[in-house]
Amino acid sequence: MVTAQKLTNLQLELVKLFSYKVTDSQLIEIKLLLGNYFAEKASEEMDKLWDENNWTEDTMKEWANEHLRTPYES
Q1: What is the pTM (predicted TM-score) of this model?
Q2: Please, what is the average pLDDT of the chain?
């Protein structure tokens, strides 16, 4: 038996928008707005992590040079 899940507040708001006919260019603009919004939120979270963990540019360089692959036996 499958239980129905309620829509989130974001999903409900987007469903309301589905009743509007938009041009292709407007659709592209809306996609960009949503993408930029979530990119900004991700950036804010990364800034918060940098501050909380005292990360620096040197930290990023160390991570870039780490070798985390699992060694394979021959």
Answers
A1: 0.61
A2: 90
- Whether the CB-CB separation of 30 and 22 falls below 8 Å is answered with yes
Buried b (16+ CB within 10 A) or exposed e, 7-40: eeeeeeeeeeeeeeeeeeeeeeeeeeeeeeeeee
Inter-residue contact 12 to 4 (CB < 8 Å): no
Let me know the angle formed at the C-alpha of 58 by 37 and 54, rounded to the nearest 5 degrees.
Answer: 65
Report, in angstroms and rounded to the nearest whole number, the Rg of the chain calculated over CA atoms.
21
Residues, the chain: 74
Say yes or no to pLDDT of 39 above 90: yes
